[in-house]
UniProtKB/TrEMBL annotation:
It holds the Pfam family Rieske. The keyword Metal-binding applies. Residues 4-99 form the Rieske domain. This is Bifunctional 3-phenylpropionate/cinnamic acid dioxygenase ferredoxin subunit. It comes from Nocardioides ginsengisoli. PANTHER family: 3-PHENYLPROPIONATE_CINNAMIC ACID DIOXYGENASE FERREDOXIN SUBUNIT (PTHR21496:SF23), FERREDOXIN-RELATED (PTHR21496).
């Protein structure tokens, strides 16, 4: 695993995601309570940025068509999306968020 610093934890809002680039991947960093998640910042339905959507109840909603994705698994939980998005391991260290984009938690290859 190769973790890279993505952002400060304090930069991640509680009800939306933060768009960051880690290595060559666009990643959405989201919080649900004390948990922090990282997923590919690209809706599998319409190829738009997920980080512009709302975060609630461990899901993120695509702003364009309303697809929702589970932050833990990347699986769609609401149509029209039917394919998952890549999710990545996250570590919080000394107030910073680190993401490993070389490893996916759900086996989905990032686009």
């Amino acid at each position: 695993m190769a973790f890279a610093r993505a952002c400060a934890l304090s930069d991640v809002p509680t009800d939306e995601a933060l768009a960051v680039t880690v290595d060559r991947y666009d990643v959405a960093i989201a919080r649900d309570g004390d948990e922090v998640y990282a997923l590919q910042d690209l809706c599998s339905h319409a190829s738009v940025s997920l980080s512009e959507g709302e975060v609630a109840d461990c899901t993120i909603e695509c702003w364009l068509h309303g697809s929702t994705f589970d932050l833990r698994t990347g699986k769609p939980t609401g149509l029209p999306a039917t394919e998952p998005v890549a999710t990545f391991p996250v570590e919080v260290r000394d107030g910073d968020v680190f993401v490993d984009v070389e490893t996916t938690l759900n086996g989905v290859t990032p686009a």
